[in-house]
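Bench notes, afternoon.
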Amino acid sequence: RDRLQGWVQERLHRTLQLAVRTVPYYRRTLGPHASRFTDYVDRLDLSELPFISKDTVRLHGAELRTDSAVRASVVRTSGTTGTPAEFLVDQPSQILQFASLWRVLNWAGYSFGDRFVDIRRNPSQASVIKRDRRMNSLVIPVFHFRRENVPLYLEHLRRFNPVLIKSYPSAIDLLCRWLSELGLEYRPPGVLTCAETLFDHQRAVIRDVLQCSLYDFYNHNERAGLISTCERGTYHIHEEYSWIELVGEQGQTGPDG
């Protein structure tokens, strides 16, 4: 625990210094706090630093770009909490994202190269079930989810024999309800839900119908945080991924936010 905290503090201090040194917006807003960075990081308390919002990014996007010559790609948010936003993401961040998500999958019993089913939004929004050989996955497009297609879904699932189903909670909950209504059974080794809140009633239905291990994780395109469950069902903040502050209803930071 001490080693992890020390590593987090080192990364956090380096990130703050880099922001002030290379990003015009942070040079202006965080610059006045620079002399106290060490104190903030030692206490792991950034509450005195100003917040930014998606509106900040929209209004000051150019000023939030680093002075350094960095190759970056544009990442767009889905807009589930409001209006979609755009961010620039560099290659090291993409690598960290990929590695971190593999660890989440490993916790859920998945190893690199295993077969898994992806019941989510697919970029093409195609209505057909597709095999993604690059990821060794089977993609069932959620935007075309239909009760009358359940026998077809089961045929593909049984033939593909995945070690894990990755899905929106609402989608796998709906599939479980259809299976129950139709008197059909399917028992995958595990389910990993993502991208939405996993509610208690959904958790109960999934476990009752599929009778398998259930995991959940939360992440977003802004690369601001990663939280996932272990085999005990406990949620863990992945601290090496980013520093997360929990904010209470009155705006205070602390463990009960």
